Amino acid sequence: MPNEITRIAIIGAGPAGLLLAWALRDAGIDSIVVENRSEDYVLARIRAGVLEQGSVETLTRLGLGDRIASDGMVHNGIYLQADGVRHNVNFNELIGRTVTVYGQQEVVKDLVAAHRDAGSTIYYEATDVSVHDLESSDPRVTFGHGGEQHTITADFIVGADGFHGVCRPSIPFSDITLYDRNYPFAWLGILADVAPSTDELIYALHEDGFAMHSMRSHTVSRLYLQVDPTEDIANWPDERIWETLQTRLAVPGWTLHEGTVTEKSITPMRSFVASRLDYHNLFLVGDAGHIVPPTGAKGLNSAISDVTMLAAGLISHYAGDDGLLSRYGAAALARQWKVQQFSQWMTETLHRHPGDLQTNEFDYRSQLGRIDYVTGSLHAQRSLAEQYTGLPL
Ligand code: FAS
Ligand code: PHB
Question: Does domain 3-75+99-180+271-345 have CATH number 3.50.50.60?
Answer without folding.
Answer: yes
